[in-house]
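Lab notebook, bench 4. The sequencing result for the construct came back, and we need a structural model before the next group meeting so we can plan mutations. Quick request posted to the team channel:

Model the 3D structure of this chain.
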Amino acid sequence: MVGSRLYASREILNITQIHAAELLNTSKQALADAEAGRLNPLPIKLLKAAAETYDVSADWLLGLTDDWERSLKIDLQRDILTGLQRIHLKHYSQLVARQAEADEINTRAQAVLAELTAAFEVFQKANPDLQKCGAERAFCGPLPRQERSG
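Done. Here's the predicted structure in token form:
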């Protein structure tokens, strides 16, 4: 079983026995013997190197599990990343919705401001006798009448 899993892992990566032997720091013959099941027991150094190089779990290579991933830590990391992505998408969707609401409120406020400005201009034209004051007050009251000297 160890040999067939070593072979399958190497084939999945599409690398030759010569290249794999170099990566595993062993001879081509030792790797060929290990893949053929003739290297028994498998040296721990080769097992560790194969697990790291092929990115599979040592337990899977030894046939102790059918889960080829290196550890449950990978599953946990994947679950955490998936959860973070979901949270990010949820918050992003909320921000987009809030931005749309803010844009709508801004559009309405600009329309109301335009109406108020137009109404103010109409009011000014209709009441030319009112004087403009400083920024604190819009109008101070009627313009003082100038007395005629006679």
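The longest helix spans residues 72-126.
Will bring this to the meeting.
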